[in-house]
Design goal:
alpha+beta; six-stranded antiparallel β-sheet; two-stranded antiparallel sheet; 11 helices; 10 strands; extended
């Protein structure tokens, strides 16, 4: 069989370090150093230990470490039993689910027949298999639920709906459960009609959510900045964040919200939703031409006071001179200072 992850987080592009003068890639290496002497320690000189009791430790030889890693047996999947699908709880999942599919070129005819018969039987009986999996040599066993894939429970572009395979959901051991003490606060009964009004609010905010139609706003912002740097164009429209709520649409249900809030009477007095979820601050408008003309950049540069200007003024000055506006404030200040100095030197040559 083969196991793969249908859905994995898409990471942001990583930056690489370059040597400033040659733009050559810089490679890095990791070394282990002794804490006392600072001498380099080779992997052959390492000793595996485990703490026991108060400050005591037990040393293990390399062959003992190898036996410990392989004490659970070779890699594989062992079915322990079956349970009704209705008894599988979403809260039991403690990690990423993966997809188990047969490898027709290596499992053989009998193995493929067994896989398909097991899949068909679990689908018809609405059951799932509880199994123990050892993914590879040295790995600890993990309890998993093998849920037969159907068109109803498969909604991934990587897995064709109705494929002959199993969703492999990691299950907890008894040691994985936490003992929590949840503080019990005071609670009051809702006023008459408040529950019905709350249901109306929830129904009005219910949407058909499809994760495949919502791009990651962090990634979109990253790509947008890279594109700006590549084409040196700051006028590009930033990408729309589709993860934000539809505030315009929510305003059409304002009467429902007001009715729910008023049903609580004095309990709702002074309630301000923006105090708990404040709206994002609007972007400051770019300075006007008159505001820019009133600033003496030459005098500020001579006095070393360009840092007193805010980011919009620095960016607007650079934009007017067709310079890049990306970077932090100190980078913008250095860029503006160099530009002002360049203009001053040019005027000096013309006067001569």
């Amino acid at each position: 069989v083969s196991v793969f992850l249908p859905v994995v987080p898409c990471p942001r592009p990583k930056f690489v370090w370059l040597e400033a003068s040659t733009n050559a890639l810089i490679t890095s290496e990791t070394r282990m150093l002794a804490r006392d002497s600072g001498a380099t320690v080779n992997s052959n000189d390492l000793v595996h230990t485990a703490k026991v009791g108060a400050g005591d430790s037990v040393k293990f030889a390399p062959d003992e470490v190898d036996r410990i890693k392989k004490q659970f047996g070779p890699p594989g999947i062992r079915i322990l039993g079956f349970r009704a699908e209705s008894q599988l709880r979403a809260k039991w999942s403690i990690g990423k689910s993966s997809f188990l599919a047969p490898k027709e070129d290596s499992c053989g005819h009998n193995g493929l027949v067994f896989f398909r018969e097991l899949h068909a039987k679990l689908v018809s009986s609405k059951r799932y298999a509880v199994a123990e999996i050892i993914a590879r040599d040295g790995m600890q066993p993990r309890l998993v639920a093998l849920v037969a894939a159907t068109a109803a429970n498969t909604a991934s572009a990587a897995v064709e709906p109705g494929s002959c395979g199993f969703h492999m959901v990691p299950l907890p051991y008894a040691d994985d459960y936490r003992s929590l003490t949840v503080p019990q606060g005071t609670c009051c009964a809702p006023p008459d009609g408040a529950v019905d009004r709350a249901k109306a609010v929830v129904q009005s905010l219910t949407v058909d959510f499809d994760p495949s139609s919502v791009p990651n706003p962090s990634l979109q912002r990253q790509y947008h900045l890279l594109q700006q740097l590549a084409v040196m164009d700051d006028d590009q429209k930033p990408p729309e964040d589709l993860s934000l709520p539809d505030r315009e649409g929510m305003r059409s249900f304002a009467t429902l919200f007001t009715a729910f809030q008023s049903s609580w009477g004095s309990a709702a007095d002074g309630y301000n939703p923006e105090a708990f979820a404040p709206l994002p601050k609007p972007a400051k408008p770019a300075p006007t031409s008159d505001e820019m003309a009133a600033i003496d950049m030459d005098s500020l540069q001579r006095a070393g006071q360009l840092t007193t200007l805010t980011m919009p003024y620095l960016k607007q000055f650079l934009k007017e001179h067709h310079e890049a506006t990306s970077g932090n404030k100190q980078e913008l200040v250095d860029r503006v200072s160099a530009l002002v100095q360049k203009k001053r030197d040019k005027r000096g040559r013309e006067d001569e």
